[in-house]
Amino acid sequence: MTDSTQDDVSICIPLKIENDDRLRNSIALITYLLKHTSAKILVKEVSPRNVFGTRAIKAIAKITDINNLTAFYEHTDEPYFNFAKVTNDLILAADTSVIAICSNDIILPVSSYKPALDMIQNDQCDIVYPSNLNYYMWESKFSPDIFYKFIQAEVPTNILDQNRNLQYFGKWCGITYMKKQKYIDCYMLNENFYGWGHEDDEFDFRMQMLGCRIGMVDDAVYHLQHTRTDDSIAGHPIQKQNRILWDEIKQFDKQKLIAYYEGQTYIQTRRAQLK
After folding, report:
1. Residue 118: its pLDDT value, please?
2. pTM higher than 0.90
3. Fewer Cβ within 10 Å of end Cβ, the chain: N or C?
4. Biggest distance spanned by C-alpha atoms of the chain
């Protein structure tokens, strides 16, 4: 059943589909969102090939209506995916007052969407992390046979419950609800973080430092297993650079943090785009 309370939400999904696992996860997530919410789904793939546009959309359209889906593609031969930059592209393209940032391997139980949104729309919180399992999440096996059961199930998370174990993940939990204007005012995701690693730690630190009200939903999310490539494997060279940047920023007080962000080129670029 579609949750119509999600009408004023854009769920933004940055994508790089570099293997069949990522393709399968993307199809599963977006099919799930289109079937169970009325949110606008914004996807942007940045990669050497438009895999989502040529393969995923066709597969999703065979399962459910895709009227609420908008897909963008940008060609690049860059080896590392700039999750932060692509996310910011999507947020600026969103025309709703509430946005959600969602990794393409994260499934949130349907029951958690409404309380997460309610906390934002009732002005209780500026940001909601819709998980509260002591920074853990369910790691779910997601082989092709589980994928087919998932997309056909009336309650898809029941399928994931049969193939899961606890995994430490951190507060971000792969999906975050937020007021769009607050996201922009607080300098968005830092585009100096490349690949995977520490952009979420820095974001949470900054939101707290800038006084954002942060809420959580008493539930857990599911992480769909996938093969890891250079972008997402722990300890890759870019992640080490990210760690150096994170170690620097987390020493800032509020005044120094604001001064740092006011001097960032990407912030000036984004402000110019908003005019």
Report:
1. 94
2. yes
3. C
4. 52
